[in-house]
């Protein structure tokens, strides 16, 4: 078996944590039971690009139990939990000497070159074939296949320009090398893929853009916009893991501090609530009047970053947009202000601009925590080099919330793989009855008793007794 992880001797530790996580992931375990005989993913060759954590290990092993042949990478250079990666490679019945699990190419602290090498490795099976399904988080695997096919069609991979970010040059280099090795590979791969299921807001945004431009090569299910994903993982998950990231990175007391949350979407709402829960005085920035009004009604001060940049102690960017916290902002911050991003990509914070500030000195306090000293002597602390801090500095979301997200993922994989003809190229969300099913699978574990509609009540509000209970436009 081909794989590349940090250290297979961590597998036992990983397996013990996977065992605990399974109990906290009732949705995934129920799906395993429901499909134990049918094994609807038999024949599926799934390439997954999603943070290689303990929770993801339970997802991977669920896909395998449903019959899939899986290869995996992390979708971020810092988010891999090495013991989880080791346990998945070794598998339940394997040993470090004779691993029997799933090929994983991921370790904590990859370089960008290694990251794209890993993505390429997971997109290629030992017999030279590619996947027939992608499970993506942020869209990097989908991007590589699409760009590869596009440049093969054009006959050449363009050169990176001076204005391009460093990572784009690495992506182009990866494509150039792989096309040289096997011309036509990406065109073939794109044609063989039945579909992709996408985990996060940023990846979904990329998919809709591609669909709009007519460039999408295969159907996609937007898992993010299942209610039981974005209204739970993005909100309650971040409500938990933003504090975890700050604590493990800095251990600074949050109570009494001024914390700025940039963006008041699902992630921002969770982060703002968590920081307030710790006693921070929370300030929100927004560009959308609706979200700004929501933040104000929820009791937060809403203003522009420039108003608070010199007064705040903690900054968390949650927008999925770029250049939110600029080098100029950071230069104007208080001594030892903490700067972090929990959005998918690192460009929310202008790290390149920060590094170019004349006279700036970077000191590593510990991995994923860096102090940047400005020429005037004041410093700021940047978490996870500007990458998502909850996965870079802590262990991401807890199992229970990820069980909701990943149950949607598995259902979406089954949908696209088994009902391919029902999904012409386009971007879809799962039907509401499946969304409600995911929620239902998580009620017992929390001791929730659900009220049942009578037939008369159901008729009165115009729904079926067994659901769906809301129209598609309902916002929760
Ligand atoms: P969203 O679209 O619900 O929220 C983003 C908000 O930022 C919007 O309300 C938007 O108006 C606002 N915004 C955009 N530009 C802004 C600017 N210049 N200044 C202030 N506000 C601005 O998206 P969601 O679901 O909250 O996701 C945000 C990001 O977090 C995405 O990149 C997503 O992929 C990522 N994500 C990260 C997770 C993690 O565990 N770290 C979990 C879930 C999502």
Automatic annotation (TrEMBL):
Keyword Signal belongs to the record: no
InterPro entries for the chain: Adenosylhomocyst_ase-like_sf, Adenosylhomocysteinase-like, Ado_hCys_hydrolase_NAD-bd, NAD(P)-bd_dom_sf, S-Ado-L-homoCys_hydrolase_CS
Subcellular location: Cytoplasm
Gene name in the database record: ahcY_2
Phylogenetic classification of the source organism: Bacteria, Bacillati, Actinomycetota, Actinomycetes, Streptosporangiales
Domain named S-adenosyl-L-homocysteine hydrolase NAD binding: residues: 234-396
Keyword annotations: Cytoplasm, Hydrolase, NAD, One-carbon metabolism
EC number: 3.13.2.1
Reactions the enzyme catalyzes: S-adenosyl-L-homocysteine + H2O = L-homocysteine + adenosine
UniProt cofactor note: Binds 1 NAD(+) per subunit.
Binding-site positions, NAD(+): 200-202, 234, 263-268, 286, 321, 342-344, 390
Gene3D superfamilies on file: Adenosylhomocysteinase-like, NAD(P)-binding Rossmann-like Domain
Keyword Transcription: no
Similarity annotation: Belongs to the adenosylhomocysteinase family.
Pathway: Amino-acid biosynthesis; L-homocysteine biosynthesis; L-homocysteine from S-adenosyl-L-homocysteine: step 1/1
PROSITE patterns xref list: ADOHCYASE_1, ADOHCYASE_2
Described function: May play a key role in the regulation of the intracellular concentration of adenosylhomocysteine.
Cofactor: NAD(+)
Domain of life: Bacteria
Protein name per its UniProtKB record: Adenosylhomocysteinase
Binding site for substrate: 53, 137, 199, 229, 233
